[in-house]
Write a structure and sequence with these properties.
About 45% of the residues lie in helices and about 15% in strands. It contains 10 helices and 6 strands, in the order αααββαβααββααβαα. The strands form 2 sheets. Strands 3-5-4-6 form a 4-stranded antiparallel β-sheet. It has a two-stranded antiparallel ribbon with strand order 1-2. α4 (about 85-95) crosses α6. It starts with a helix and ends with a helix.
Amino acid sequence: MTHEETERAVEALLFAAAGPLSAADLARRLPEGAEVGKALAALKAHYAGRGVVLDIVADKWQFRTAIDLSYLMIEEREEPRKLSKAALETLAIIAYHQPVTRAEIETVRGVGLSRGTLDVLHELNLIKLRGRRRSPGRPVTYGTTEAFLEQFSLPSLADLPGASEMRAAGLLDLNVPSDFFVPDPSGTKAVEDALTIEELEQPEFHQDFFEFEEDRGD
């Protein structure tokens, strides 16, 4: 093969390849004696400064988009993240019962609370650590954030819907007990101590681990 033929063949192979190719990979597909190295050098020089360039990474060659044009390939889309039923129930309990402990959340729901549920709510900035309850074990308490109010278009926690509003919206069973009431999150709460800066900076699993260990010791 002439140098021009070798260069064209190498160019075609690199464009058609699903991934990077080494000089040895290319040589195996070309007639014996083809000067693959020279062809690669010529192609690299030819494509220098163009929209597509010939790069070598880990001794393998590949055509790639020029780095300065990478912004053209980026597409930004908003994908609303849906909360699971467990996350919505947990968020509602925290909103109405705050400040509330993990154990209290589980008592209201009647099932255990997975770490992933709280992680998601924390990640979305819908809940935060509030403090430590002045009770045995000093459990951490949770509350909602300003982002929670913004998300649900609420001026304040006092504007959370009550029992009558929930019934009107079809969110409550009409057969609920007559003494059923919706907690008022803006009312008087159990006394708690604020978390220290060190505690707030620690990963949350440390908080839960300590709470669990202390509860086991009682």
